[in-house]
Specification:
single chain; 216 residues; mainly beta; Jelly Rolls; seven-stranded antiparallel sheet; globular
Length: 216
């Protein structure tokens, strides 16, 4: 989508941020039931699926639905999450992934009847952090910002005020898979919806610093 801006004798075409074309993404662990319509992805999350590596539980799984594109450099990814969470550990979110040993998932996880803002950061082994929302809410926005050698994670209940809840190390100068994921480790599946998924390119910080230091 383009917006035309008129200046003093100048006509400028400026690219505005629009939702990522979901039809152009691809599946890792495609679920049996899913649909893309009006730039919204809905799916029935495959039962008995998850993402985890080794620590605490002693097992490794890598079989949740993940719908993604491949991006290089620095970026901001964002999505609105809506789901009919039912069973313990039902989850939806964003995923940023290099390979099966290096990935981050961030979003909502349902534990003990509560909705939690959740993050799992995996660097050979996984860790897990949660923030309880203390109530059920109709939807949650999550955002992941990749800058230099880290990814910052944010959540929002209104797409206006965002709270950062994690800053995790992540290899830079490496192409990554970015998209939406879901998992249902304990339950029999649930309905999930992902709206307004965007990936916005951010200028490389080191290059900007170099350019600033080498001005004419």
């Amino acid at each position: 989508m383009k917006k035309i801006l008129f200046g003093i004798g100048v006509l400028l075409a400026v690219n505005t941020v629009s939702a990522q074309k979901l039809e152009k993404l691809q599946w890792f662990n495609e679920p049996e039931k899913w649909e893309v319509k009006n730039n919204s992805l809905s799916m029935f999350v495959t039962p008995k699926t998850d993402y985890w590596r080794i620590s605490h539980y002693g097992f490794t799984v890598d079989d949740g639905p993940f719908y993604y594109g491949t991006y290089g450099g620095e970026f901001e990814a964002k999505v609105k999450l809506t789901a009919d969470y039912k069973a313990r550990f039902d989850q939806t979110g964003l995923m940023v992934r290099i390979d099966e040993k290096h990935w981050i998932k961030a979003g909502v996880e349902f534990v003990d009847g509560n909705m939690n803002i959740s993050a799992v950061v995996t660097n050979t082994k996984s860790d897990w952090s949660v923030i309880s929302l203390g109530k059920k809410v109709p939807f949650v926005w999550v955002k992941a910002v990749r800058r230099l050698d880290a990814v910052e994670l944010f959540y929002s209940l209104d797409d206006r005020t965002y709270t950062m809840y994690r800053n995790a190390p992540f290899d830079d100068n490496t192409p990554v898979q970015v998209g939406v994921m879901a998992a249902c480790p304990d339950g029999n599946g649930f309905n999930a919806q992902f709206d307004n998924f965007t990936v916005t390119h951010l200028p490389d910080q080191r290059r900007l610093q170099w350019l600033d230091a080498h001005k004419d």
